[in-house]
Amino acid sequence: MKNITDSFVSLGYWPSAGSFGFNTDILATNPINLSVVLGGLIFFGKGVLSDLLDNRKQKILNTIRNSEELRGGVIEQLEKARARLRKVEMEADQYRVNGYLEIERTIFDLMTSTSKTLEQLEKNKNDTIHFEQQRAINQVRQRVFQQALEGALGTLNSCLNIELHLRTIIVNIGMFEAMKEKTD
């Protein structure tokens, strides 16, 4: 400590027009050097430091402003997406309702068509049964007529002799010729 005070005291002993030299006492020169360096830094560095801080401040403000703009854009896009979602949900509900209505209409149409088809099939079945009955009745009639004819021919053949048989044939031929002349 004594060296520091001695260095300040020794300033008074310097001759005013004396020689120039180096002070090798580090403790005495350090506060002076530091004060000169700090003064120079403050004087010359104040503008640079101020500019750096202003630039940094502007970058931060720009970043905040851009972030706010992006946030606003994102919020707007989110609202648009929500609106589209609501619209799509409403359309989906409408399609669902329309789908159910279409299914019910299709079921009703199918049931109506099936009912008509069944009625037509029933009518066709009844017509077919009636036709088959008529055909069976006609076959039975033909069979009965054929058997009756065969029985009558058998009876006639057994009862008629050749002479009576020839007279019957001649009479029948005469009747056919008379019928033929009438039609011509």
Automatic annotation (TrEMBL):
Q: Which family does it belong to?
A: Belongs to the ATPase B chain family.
Compartments where found: Membrane
Q: What is its main location?
A: membrane
Instruction: Summarize the protein's role.
Output: F(1)F(0) ATP synthase produces ATP from ADP in the presence of a proton or sodium gradient. F-type ATPases consist of two structural domains, F(1) containing the extramembraneous catalytic core and F(0) containing the membrane proton channel, linked together by a central stalk and a peripheral stalk. During catalysis, ATP synthesis in the catalytic domain of F(1) is coupled via a rotary mechanism of the central stalk subunits to proton translocation.
What would you give as a GO molecular function for this chain, any one? proton transmembrane transporter activity
Provide the gene name from the record.
atpF
**InterPro entries, alphabetically?**
ATP_synth_b/b'su_bac/chlpt (IPR002146)
Q: Could you confirm whether the keyword Cell membrane appears in this record?
A: no
GO terms in the biological process aspect are: proton motive force-driven ATP synthesis
Which CDD domains does the record match to this protein?
A: ATP-synt_Fo_b
A GO cellular component annotation here is:
proton-transporting ATP synthase complex
Which key words are in the record?
Answer: ATP synthesis, CF(0), Hydrogen ion transport, Ion transport, Membrane, Plastid, Transmembrane, Transmembrane helix, Transport
Q: What is this protein called?
A: ATP synthase CF0 subunit I
The record lists the membrane-crossing segments as: 32-49
Name any one Pfam family assigned in the record.
ATP-synt_B
* Topology in membrane: Single-pass membrane protein
Q: What is the lineage of its organism?
A: Eukaryota, Viridiplantae, Streptophyta, Embryophyta, Tracheophyta
